[in-house]
């Protein structure tokens, strides 16, 4: 317990230092981080790269969890609506893509994805319109039911491939431009390995790195959208609704409309993630959409720190990556989650990276005195 | 914008009625919380709504702001009936309120709290926000200007980036008033704004309420503290057990035997 304040102080000071940098430097820093993320599966850094599995595939899974976590964060973190059936939207997206590209039609994937996203958004609105009138625990139960209903429909409907599932789901179109060699660390120093290359850009079965690049690109786009929407009337309305729904309504926020919007936005991103997942997997069946996944998605958001987009990305990374990295202990995954959640509840009840303002609030309590003196300077600096 | 309002108030010597409460009755099961209450508020005045605990003052507020639907009777705002309208619509029409127990958006900053209020008159949706359309930019700029102006007016500008939860009690009360003013109201309903204040703070608040009125707002004030009410209001309506027992200027109310009886607990026969 005694360690927490110092760790917190360090984290914010790093954050503040980044925030204090001039804008071009900041942009350069982010571009460098993004490039590193793109290059990660080619670099195959030792220890980080999981042994015995395809690093690209693992990283793709991470991007899908990141997408899902960003989407669920809008619903749970921003608008404060506890959704235990998020996998339902994910399933709607995946099944729509699967049915359109393989099972009942032969659409190209890039055409099927918008339809899949539309379908999951509509399912979000259809689920939200009647159920968002109930609050808290009741909403959690209703959404829990929704997730299961979608899965059971898939199991029992021949038109959706029932329990056998759907195979040969479409892949994104590729065009082989050039080969990119991976790094090989076997000798202890990094060497370019021209026998192990990734084609830019072919979405194959064996090499999943192009899928990861696609997933990462989508995550970055969604992240930008998240930032833009959060910092607007819409984001404020969500937060106000989460803080106190009655007061928000009395301050002129049409709360029901904004809750529905949060639900639809979440469903949009969930459907997008589901359709990408189906395409990479090439085969889906109802077992891919168990209740357990809703719980895992929620765990990613809660572990990371609901309400903070960077926190939930970290949470998603941990939830998706650690079990793959330590496959030999994969049987203990649920045990490890249980233990991790308990430890979090005790030591960091707001998640690993709670919203910065929550951290700041704690700090500010100590600094209130100092703030009260520096009146005019503060005012002019922020206007 | 406040200048326009002040001019308008000065120009119309014959005051218009902002709010009319007409035979308002509210029943919860067998309990009659408000019984045929009738009063009105004129433009630019400060009307005090007083009464002993449980008299129905806050219930009356809740009916005006749309939380409760009247059992019978009518509430008219600028001549149009607002009973049965949605709460956020009533706010957009121009009635804002504060709460007896402070209810800020605690994990949002002071500025954001006021911005939520300012957003009441805005219509930026997800598309405008996502693509940073001109509408978003304009409304965001206007909102920020209004919000900072109000925070300065309330003496909170230096705490704009502070979380609402971290503000002192008095600052929180003032922030609630700023948030209400940001919604662009004609009528502001203050529900016991001086609760928990010491006499010095109460005096400051009285001054503040007068300045709010001078900006062109009409104020409806619920208050327990008789000195505050007498000092600041133009007219007073007294409720007791859900019924209106008196209405008039502060001096008239002070002399009114029914009011004295209600507050001092004297039997009405003795008092009259």
> How many strands appear in the DSSP assignment of chain A?
2
User: β content of chain B, as a range?
Assistant: 15-25%
Please tell me the CATH architecture of chain A by its name.
Orthogonal Bundle
Provide the residue-averaged pLDDT of chain B: 89
Q: What coarse outline of chain A follows from CA principal-axis ratios?
A: globular
Determine the number of helices of chain B (DSSP H or I, runs of at least 4 residues): 12
Helix content of chain B: 40-55%
Which residues of chain B form runs of ≥5 with pLDDT under 50? 1-13
Average pLDDT level of chain A: 86
Write down the domain tally of chain A: 1
Mind telling me which CATH architecture of the largest domain in chain B this is?
A: 3-Layer(aba) Sandwich
CATH superfamily of the largest domain in chain B: P-loop containing nucleotide triphosphate hydrolases
Tell me the series of helices and strands of chain B, N- to C-terminal.
Answer: HEEEHEEHEHHHHEHEHEEHHH
Cα end-to-end separation of chain B: 49 Å
Helix segment tally of chain A: 15
Commentary on this structure:
Chain A is mainly α. Chain A has a single domain, classed as ABC transporter involved in vitamin B12 uptake, BtuC (Orthogonal Bundle), CATH 1.10.3470. Chain A contains 15 helices and 2 strands. Chain A has a two-stranded antiparallel ribbon with strand order 1-2. The longest helix of chain A has 27 residues, at 255-281. Chain B is an alpha/beta fold. Chain B folds into 2 domains: 2-94 and 185-271, Rossmann fold (3-Layer(aba) Sandwich); 105-182, no CATH class. In chain B, 47% of the residues are buried. Residues 1-13 of chain B have low confidence and may be disordered. At the A-B interface, α7, α8, α9, α10 and α14 of A face α3, α4, α5 and α6 of B.
């Amino acid at each position: 317990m005694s360690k927490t304040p110092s760790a917190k102080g360090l984290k914010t000071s790093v954050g503040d230092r980044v925030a204090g940098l001039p804008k071009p430097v900041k942009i350069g820093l982010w571009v460098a981080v993004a490039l590193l993320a793109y290059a990660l599966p080619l670099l195959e850094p030792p220890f980080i790269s999981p042994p015995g599995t395809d690093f690209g595939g693992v990283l793709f899974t991470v991007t899908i969890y990141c997408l899902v976590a960003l989407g669920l964060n809008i619903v749970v973190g921003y608008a404060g609506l506890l959704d235990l059936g998020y996998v339902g939207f994910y399933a709607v997206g995946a099944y729509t893509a699967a049915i359109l590209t393989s099972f009942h039609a032969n659409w190209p994937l890039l055409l099927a994805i918008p339809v899949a996203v539309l379908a999951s958004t509509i399912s979000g609105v259809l689920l939200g319109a009647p159920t968002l009138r109930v609050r808290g625990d009741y909403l959690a139960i209703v959404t829990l039911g929704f997730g299961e209903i979608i899965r059971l429909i898939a199991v029992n409907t021949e038109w959706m491939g029932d329990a056998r599932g759907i195979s040969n789901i479409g892949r994104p179109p590729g065009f082989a431009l050039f080969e990119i060699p991976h790094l090989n660390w076997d000798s202890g120093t990094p060497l370019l390995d021209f026998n192990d290359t990734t084609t830019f850009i072919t979405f194959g079965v064996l090499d999943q790195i192009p899928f990861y690049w696609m997933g990462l690109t989508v995550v970055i786009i969604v992240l930008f959208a998240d930032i833009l929407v959060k910092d607007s009337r819409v984001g404020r309305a969500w937060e106000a609704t989460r803080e106190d729904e009655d007061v928000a309504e009395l301050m002129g926020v049409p709360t029901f409309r904004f809750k529905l919007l949060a639900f639809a936005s979440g469903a949009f991103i969930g459907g997008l993630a589901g359709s990408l997942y189906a395409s990479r997997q090439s085969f889906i069946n109802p077992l891919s959409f168990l209740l357990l996944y809703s719980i895992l998605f929620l765990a990613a958001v809660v572990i990371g720190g609901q309400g903070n987009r960077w926190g939930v990305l970290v949470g998603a990374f941990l939830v998706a990556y650690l079990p793959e990295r330590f496959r030999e202990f994969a049987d203990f995954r649920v045990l490890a989650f249980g233990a991790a959640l308990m430890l979090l509840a005790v030591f960091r009840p707001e998640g690993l990276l709670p919203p910065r303002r929550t951290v700041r609030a704690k700090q500010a309590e100590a600094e209130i005195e100092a703030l009260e003196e520096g009146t005019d300077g503060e005012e002019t600096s922020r206007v | 914008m406040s200048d326009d309002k002040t001019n308008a108030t000065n120009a119309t010597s014959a005051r218009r009625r902002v709010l009319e409460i007409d035979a308002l009755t509210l029943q919860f099961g067998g309990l009659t919380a408000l019984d045929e209450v009738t009063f009105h508020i004129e433009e630019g005045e400060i009307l005090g709504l007083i009464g002993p605990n449980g008299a129905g003052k806050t219930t009356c507020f809740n009916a005006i702001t749309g939380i409760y639907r009247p059992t019978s009777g009518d509430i008219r705002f600028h001549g149009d009936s607002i009973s049965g309208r949605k709460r956020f619509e009533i706010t957009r029409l121009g009635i804002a309120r504060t709460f007896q127990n402070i209810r800020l958006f605690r994990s949002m900053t002071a500025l954001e709290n006021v911005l939520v209020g300012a957003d009441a008159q805005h219509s930026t949706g997800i598309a405008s926000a996502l693509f940073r359309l001109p509408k978003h930019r304009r409304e965001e700029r206007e909102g920020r200007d209004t919000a900072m102006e109000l925070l300065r007016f309330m003496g909170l500008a230096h705490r704009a980036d502070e979380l609402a939860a971290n503000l002192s009690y008095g600052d929180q009360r003032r922030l609630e008033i700023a948030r209400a003013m940001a919604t662009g109201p004609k009528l502001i309903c203050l529900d016991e704004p001086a609760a928990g204040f010491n006499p010095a703070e109460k005096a400051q608040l009285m001054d503040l309420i007068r300045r709010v009125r001078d900006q062109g707002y009409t104020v409806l004030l619920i208050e327990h503290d008789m000195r505050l009410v007498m000092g600041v209001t133009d007219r007073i309506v007294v409720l007791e057990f859900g019924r209106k027992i008196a209405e008039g200027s502060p001096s008239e109310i002070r002399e009114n035997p029914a009011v004295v009886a209600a507050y001092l607990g004297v039997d009405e026969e003795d008092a009259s």
